[in-house]
Amino acid sequence: MSISGALSNALSGLTASSRNAQVVSTNLANVLTPGYAPRALELAPRADGRIGGVIVQGLTRNVDAGLLADRRMADSSLANADAKAGFLTEMQRLVGTPDVPSSLSGRFSAFEASLVTAAAKPEEETRLLAVALRAGELATALNDVSRGIQQARTGAEAKITQAVSDANTYLGQLQALNARIVDASNSGHPTAAFEDQRRIVLDQLAELVPIRLARRDGGAVAIYTPGGATLLDGPPAELAFTPNNIVQPHMTLENGLLDGLTINGNPVPPSGDRSPIEGGRIAGLFELRDRLATDAQSQVDALARDLIARFQDPALDASRGPGDPGLFTDAGLAFATTDEIGVSARISLNTLVDPDQGGALWRLRDGLGSTAPGPVGDATLLQALTRALTTPAALASGDLGATERATSEHVSTFVSRLGQQRLTLDQTVAFATAHQAGLVEIELGMGVDSDAEMQKLLLIEQAYSANARVIQTVEEMIDALLRI
After folding, report:
1. Where is 54: in which H helix or E strand?
2. I need a labelling partner for 429 at 20 to 30 A (CA). Which of 91, 119, 251, 362 fits?
């Protein structure tokens, strides 16, 4: 080997070692940086056979694309389950557990007990007052549950609006990053920093909508959903949603009073098996608004309807006129079967027996249509009211089953159903959390290993010293030749 060849080899080695040290230092500096992928320098021998040495071919980001795709799908599943679990948690808080007096079950039990107590001594006004108070509390409890359901649906509207806006923002950012990566690649510049930024934005998008990637020329990516929707392949897709400020029980996606989701102006099912975006937070919020909450509303409405109907039976109180409401009313009127939706929000105690609204307690004993008190010891109507509450009967609506039960048993079925839904979804959340956490742990294990990088630095130092020693030796040889 000639002196010039040896010098060329050493200089190329110094250049490669210096560049390698920069890469390792960058890796170490970004150990805790989110989205950062470890870099590795690609070296190759010079193609020219006359002289040796190495050349730097480029920089490689060490990323497991399959693992990354699985982790993003796990992120989507977890976000979807979390969106629904929050609603069921709030529902359980509103309904309460049977051992709590202020729970829905507790209110029903207290009302039933007050009727039994009043029937035992109908002449005592304090017992009649207890009936009126417990009945009012029961109606208020049903109102509160219905109101909470609609607040959850209204909240879901606002969250969907924000999520759709975020998704559009992320798609715009990804389009810009794709363009930067392609430009840098075509110019021969490093693209790793742009790819790290793109990875972070893709992770954020994946929580909202499940995504799959397809590689394009120049390092760009196209983004699709597993359901077949194209989100980005050149220009980004536009997701659109029009929210309502307040959601009422009768408002649904099916009757057109609530808006769905559109992609590039085309309506798509926002959730369910037929939805192209099924999975992710957006689909979970739509499922909360359009299925979980509406199912809960129909069940609470069925309980309120059953309660009103039991006391609205014309044979129960002969003092009432045709079409007059019973002990419980639908916003002050008799209940009509054609207007059931939202009845749990409208149920109220009949003002004729409500002392706070000018009613008379003795009507609980003598009849709602009575104009004057009757015999104070007559417990016939109170006993009939008790039987109306405890006689087994099937619910006329809802999906709590067609079994004939007492009112309290229907309530217990509702609470039990709610608890089972919560348990099932909690298990789903637990599985999704464990799955996602496991993939994240594997992903972190494939990140920057500080120990390995420090070992690389030692080897780089040795290589640098060796090449520097070759240059020093060449210098000494040239000096020796010049002295001859």
Report:
1. strand 54-61
2. 251
